[in-house]
Amino acid sequence: MASILRDFLTLLLLLAALGPSGSAATDERVYFSPPIAAVAAGDTLSVYVSIDSGISLVHYYRVRLQYDRSILHLDTIVPSRAWDSIALKYSGHSFFYKDSLDPISGEQYHDLFSAFYTQPPHIDGPNQLARIRFTALQSGISPVEFYSYRLENNVGLGQLIPCGATDGLVYVCPLPEGFMPGNMDGKPGINVADLTYLVSYLFRGGTAPIPLYLNADVNCDLSVNVADLTYLVSYLFRDGLPPCDPCNQGE
To answer: Is the pLDDT of residue 23 over 50?
Structure first.
């Protein structure tokens, strides 16, 4: 008990030093929308490769993505309507996608590509680049991750558009046995021990909560970090919202 209290006091000091938790400034980025999707096994769902409002003059993109093939089956990838509407007015539009294998790592990924070869067609953010349709195969969770990505503008022969990338997650409900948002240590209930477990993982090289995103991403923001600690502190000691459950968001 003394060890738990000591770790909890350390946590409070850490949170105080970090200050209020707010949204980080948004960098120009390519991202999946919606960032989190929850469906039932057998359902189909669509996610979109999108760009935010800071990105403009995109005339070429190449995106390589990965996902858990035991959880999701890829049905099709098509250009978004924004690209289609431009293609109706201009010639020289190219689009394809294919299943590929990294010759070095041996990892599988899907490679999708779209470009205009005439000037001046382009697409600006916020907008969608492509729609990806999946079928959910079985209960579980699958990241939909950017294996790599590249955007170019339509100035001259094309120049790289620097930007960040934000991955997505698909939850196939009902989630596997053992899923309990906020439960880090696998023991019954959600309490101070779960806070100290997460502190150990984040700052002391401790064991990761298992399953990581299912139980530790308590605010459903696609990351496990100090924001999840502050969320749990609010829930346990300040009458805050309970850890989010993507399959029961209305609860």
So the answer is: no
**Which residues does 16 contact at the CB level (< 8 Å), separation at least 6?**
none
Q: Which helix (H) or strand (E) holds 214?
A: helix 212-216
Q: 57 is written with which tokens? A: 């003059």
Q: Cα–Cα distance between 152 and 59 in angstroms, integer?
A: 6
Q: 113: alpha, beta or left, given left = phi > 0 and alpha = psi -120 to 50? A: beta
CA-CA distance, 7 to 204, in Å (whole number)?
11
Q: Are 125 and 56 in contact (CB under 8 A)?
A: yes
pTM of the model: 0.77
52's tokens: 């935010």
H or E segment to which residue 64 belongs:
strand 58-67
Sign of the dihedral through C-alpha 186, 210, 219, 193: positive
* Main-chain phi, psi angles of 116, to 5 degrees: -105, 135
Q: Which residue from 67, 60, 8 is spatially nearest to 200, judged by alpha carbons?
A: 8
Cβ neighbours of residue 88 closer than 8 Å, sequence gap 6 or more = none
Name the residue among 144, 172, 168, 138 with its Cα closest to residue 70.
138
pLDDT in tens, 173-195: 988 776 788 888 888 889 989 98
Burial profile 140-177: b = 16 or more Cβ within 10 angstroms, e = fewer: bbbbbbbbebebbbbeeeeeebebebbbbbbbbbebee
What SS3 class is residue 164? strand
Q: List alpha helices for 101-211, DSSP H.
A: 192-203
Structure-token pair, residue 185: 């240590």
DSSP 3-state assignment of 197? helix
DSSP 82-124: HHHHHHHH-S-EEEEEEEEE-TTT--EEEEEEEEE-SSS--B-
